């Protein structure tokens, strides 16, 4: 009985990871696009760095080296939201401007539970190009507009409750005695798995919307592409040198598939295809209702 206990529990992890649906139903990239994406990640020539490293004195919440970028991007998001009726537009005007925290070792950005976007100075130092900084902000704003932050928090809470309960049930069925601390570990694991339940699809959705926001802001359409390439290479270098990893890619996974979707999105913007896509569609609640 004990030998089947762990495999059964791991099946629950995969079950929770697939229990939620995406906002968009995007077509999968072609093999040609995947090949192009793989080549680009390794060999694309990036624009030179134009932003100098951030100092501690630059890193105030509202007075920092990328202030023009954050104001320009927020205004663009507001315009795009109003024009497309994307949703949450009425809440957007009350959201705080993005803030930067000084942490040279933290190469990351995220939107918190209050929909406030935090950019760490390590990410600014790694990118070093204003358009790419704007792309990261557009990506995080996309997470907010698409409701990804709320979904992650909900999934985390559900996972934190369900995992200990299911673990207890499996323990009884398998005649296994567990230490009480194991249930706390299960709750932690459930929260982690729940918060990332459909993270890859969230990233694809946010990537796609970010390119349309970049167009609205007047930034280069390839800025998010270049940011992903630059972060991918920094991540690879850090791993090979034993210096750790790039945080942005830990919470925003990179892959040939993700880059292929990015390339397809850039082509769609240039062809005036709506942000939902010519074959993509918005997934509504009815898609998940039983017959």
List the topology elements.
Blueprint: H1 2-17, H2 31-43, H3 67-84, H4 89-92, E1 99-101, E2 109-111, E3 117-120, H5 121-127, H6 130-145, H7 148-173, H8 180-195, H9 199-217, H10 223-240, H11 247-251, H12 256-270
Parallel strand pairs: 1-3
Antiparallel strand pairs: 2-3
Helix pairs in contact: 1-7, 2-12, 3-6, 3-9, 6-9, 6-10, 7-8, 9-12
Assembly of the depicted chains: single chain
Order of helices and strands: HHHHEEEHHHHHHHH
**Envelope shape:** globular
Give the number of DSSP strands: 3
Mean pLDDT: 73
Percentage of β-strand residues? under 5%
Q: Summarize the biggest pleated sheet.
A: 3 strands, mixed
Structural class: mainly alpha
Distance between the termini: 37 Å
Sheet with most strands: strand arrangement: 1-3-2
Number of domains: 1
| Rounded Rg | 21 Å
Q: Could you list the spans in which at least 5 consecutive residues all have pLDDT below 50?
A: 1-11, 13-21, 194-198, 278-291
Q: Compute the number of helices.
A: 12
Report the helical percentage: 55-70%
Give the tags.
single chain; 291 residues; mainly alpha; three-stranded mixed sheet; 12 helices; 3 strands; globular; disordered N terminus; disordered C terminus
Give a structural overview:
- With 291 residues, this protein is mainly α.
- The protein has one domain (2-284).
- The chain is 59% helix and 3% strand.
- The protein contains 12 helices and 3 strands; from the N terminus they run H-H-H-H-E-E-E-H-H-H-H-H-H-H-H.
- The protein has helices at 2-17, 31-43, 67-84, 89-92, 121-127, 130-145, 148-173, 180-195, 199-217, 223-240, 247-251, 256-270, and strands at 99-101, 109-111, 117-120.
- A 3-stranded mixed β-sheet has the order 1-3-2.
- Strand 2 (109-111) and strand 3 form a beta hairpin.
- Helix 3 crosses helix 9 (199-217) and helix 6 crosses helix 9 (199-217).
- 36% of the residues are buried.
- Mean pLDDT is 73; it is low at 1-11, 13-21, 194-198 and 278-291.
């Amino acid at each position: 009985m004990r030998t089947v206990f762990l495999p059964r529990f791991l099946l629950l992890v995969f079950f929770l990871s697939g229990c939620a649906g995406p906002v968009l139903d995007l077509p999968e990239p072609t093999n040609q696009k995947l090949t192009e994406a793989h080549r680009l990640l390794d060999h694309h020539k990036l624009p030179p760095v134009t932003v100098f490293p951030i100092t501690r004195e630059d890193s105030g919440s509202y007075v920092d080296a990328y202030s023009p970028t954050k104001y320009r991007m927020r205004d663009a998001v507001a315009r795009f939201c109003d024009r497309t009726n994307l949703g949450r537009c009425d809440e957007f005007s009350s959201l705080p401007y993005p803030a930067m925290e000084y942490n040279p070792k933290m190469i990351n950005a995220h939107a918190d539970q209050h929909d406030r976007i935090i950019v760490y100075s390590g990410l600014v130092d790694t990118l070093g190009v204003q358009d790419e900084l704007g792309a990261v902000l557009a990506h995080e704003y996309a997470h907010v507009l698409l409701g990804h932050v709320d979904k992650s928090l909900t999934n985390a809470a559900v996972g934190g409750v369900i995992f200990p309960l299911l673990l207890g049930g499996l323990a009884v069925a398998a005649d296994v005695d567990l230490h009480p601390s194991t249930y706390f570990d299960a709750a932690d694991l459930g929260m982690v798995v729940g918060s990332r339940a459909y993270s890859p699809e969230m990233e694809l959705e946010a990537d796609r919307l970010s390119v349309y926001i970049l167009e609205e802001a007047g930034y280069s359409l390839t800025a998010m592409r270049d940011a992903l390439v630059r972060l991918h290479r920094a991540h690879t270098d850090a791993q090979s040198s034993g210096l750790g990893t790039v945080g942005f890619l830990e919470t925003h996974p990179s892959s040939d598939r993700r880059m292929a979707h990015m390339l397809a999105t850039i082509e769609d913007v240039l062809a005036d295809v709506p942000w939902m896509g010519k074959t993509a569609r918005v997934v509504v609640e009815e898609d998940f209702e039983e017959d």
